[in-house]
Predict the structure.
Amino acid sequence: MTADQQELLFHRVVGAAPDLVFACLTDPDHLTAFWGPKGTTSPRESIEVDLRAGGVFTTLMVSDHDGSSYRMRAVYDEVDPPRRLAWTDVDTGLHTTVTFEDLGDGRTGVDIRQTHLPPGIRTQEAQAGFLSSLDRFDDHLADIASGRASR
Amino acid sequence: MSPVLAPPRPDELDAMFAALADPTRREIVARLSHGDATLTDLAQPFPMSLQAVSQHLGVLERAGLVSRSRAGRQRPCRLETRALDAAVGWIEANTRAWTERFDKLDAHLRTLEHP
């Protein structure tokens, strides 16, 4: 399978009702608390949400270590609270669709499906092969693959 | 080079692989995989000048594989595991980022329940 046909799937059960989980993913006051992955923060003032199809969704992730940053610029494709939310990354073309399933017990099943993976990652299998042949690197790469080297 | 989540562009990947093609720079990366270190620490095992090691560090920095803290006189160097992740598997890095994000969301929801 080539990367452009691939889809990435991520599933998580969240301990809150769909209304609140949907709000968390669309309200800058919530987003700033969790949008930046470990080791990064997303300042409140850098988050822009125009919650309608065609509206912008912009976030900034700033490294806690050296202050370097990555701006995600996206446009909403679908806004259907509290069931479905979809956006397209303007710079990479990556599509992200989030569906919220009411589990009926105050929890929400969140499904994230990403398609239209950027072309840059298509060649990585070959390049990873090159990398793993380098001296002393195999162990570290194995650590990374298993998540042990993550900070 | 963006440290987080950005899918690597082909030119960024080229820079990373070019940087890793040199044995001294691989040594530096291997050393930093055990923890942050200063230029002096990093230069210690090499029979070359501080300046030469500094130049190798510059290549790794420009490739996004190493960052140097802005704080402190020693300016310790750190291996950007995310950049390395991006080089060997953006997909895995992306999945981990979502996991970390939802871990933070769980924590955030707990603060809403018990402010």
Chain A has four helices and eight strands. Chain A has one domain: 7-146. Helices of chain A lie at 18-26, 28-34, 124-132, 138-146.
